[in-house]
Automatic annotation (TrEMBL):
Protein name: Uncharacterized protein
Superkingdom as given in the UniProt entry: Bacteria
InterPro entries assigned to the protein according to its UniProt record, in alphabetical order: P-loop_NTPase
Amino acid sequence: MTTDLHPSQVHSYLKMYHSTQTASWLCWAASVLVLCAAVDVRQKQIKPWLLFGSASALVGGVNLRKSAKELNQMLGTIDRASQLNFQALARTQTQPTAQLAITVGTIDANWKPANLITDPVEYIQKKQKHVALVGGTGDGKSTFTQYLSSKIGGRVIVYDSDAKPDDWSWLDQNDVIGRKGNFKAIDTAMSKDLENLEDLVELRGEGGDNAIAGRERFMIAEEFPILVDECPNSTFWIKRHAKRGRRYQQFICAIAQNDTAENFGLQGDKDTLYSCFVLVRLGQFARDYARTKLKDPQLEQWLKAGGKKRFMVDDCPCELDLSNWGVGTAAAVESDRGTNAEAQIPQPTLNEYEQFIVDWGKRNPSNLLKAGMLQRSTRLFDDFQPDEVRLIFASLADKGLGTLEGTGNQLGWVWIE
């Protein structure tokens, strides 16, 4: 089989082969047709000149077929020749003209965001805005909301159709509205909130700020998209309070599992959501925001390494550990809300990733633990990059749990009693 032909020669020979095959079949077909015309069945005569033409066409077809066979023998298997033709041509057309260099940056395990905030309540109060809380199931929305309500001040009113008996136990139970899916009660209460807002407008217009002192309220609406569907007054409630409530100390916290304006009853009014609310994003929503909106993969990995204790407040990363914050008793909350006591700082605790590392360290004291070793020992860290594991090492060291050894890719963590 000839394989040393130039690609253009192979291509020409292939064209000749296909043309010769086609012509041979046409000649044979013409021979049959002319032969039929040469024989006159009715008169039982044969037309010699047509018979000669038929024979000539047959001979021509045979010669063309012979030529096709010769080409086939010269090229070898035609399909294989076609492949060689294509491969050779592809090589000539796709020669590399440049080399692509990819630089993969490493993340400093000690890195912290420059605009990190640790007191979201202080941030919210300075902004004098409402709160739009976004998070998925298990991201800690309820815990954050209860913590927030204990710090903001004023009378707390909760609209929660899914509240369990022990939820919000530290509040006056008349202020927890909608238990057992009672949406009618929520809708009625929201209507009264709108009337109350109008009363405050009138009172303040007549007597100034002193006339409305002591009537501050913080209203929490759980799963707001459901309220939009079930409570006709909810859309008016959020729009009216968003634009006027702050001036009369009527603050709201609306909770949803998506940060679109539609989920907060503000269809086509995205500007109101961003101008009147502080957006708190928990869990995956925080990480997605860091990656897609802020274009900061380093921040995304920092958020992931911190678990529930790290989230986004507007464009600012926040670190606050609420896993050990108790709201189960009235005494705990009253202590948090006491006017003569300083606000208690939640005691730091460990998320499941940190706890696993600490437990390993206690079992293997003074042994150096590296990211690769940790990922091979458990599937818990399958979704983590090595640099993200090193961030957790650094976080533990910052808490006084163990020490760091090495730098860069060689960074490890050691448990020391």
